[in-house]
Amino acid sequence: MQWKINYYYNTNNISPIKKWLDSLDNEPKAEIFKIFQMLSKYGIDLGLPFVRPIENKIYEVRAKDKSGIYRVLYFAHTDKTFVLLHGFMKKTQKTPRKEIEIALKRMKEVKDG
């Protein structure tokens, strides 16, 4: 059985991660969605160079093209479901703390229902 991939939605029923993905050019978007397909197929067994753990059960999808480096932060929820929490274009070597904090806050919202 494949893993499902869901988007985070805030209390206004808006998905910032979906909006961000929709705003990307075709090339990085295709690269990211290719990794989403692998994630759906292999689930938690998928590892580097495509995904890696960040902290507190938050993982990152790692995509790159000629225009830059892209990250999508997510976590494994219930019943073989991943929830995409936050996406950004990476400009530094290390994942910025503020990006991780956004994902942690959203993960808490999802878990608290």
From TrEMBL:
What InterPro entries does this protein map onto? HigB-like
- Matching Pfam families: Gp49
Q: What is this protein called?
A: Addiction module toxin RelE
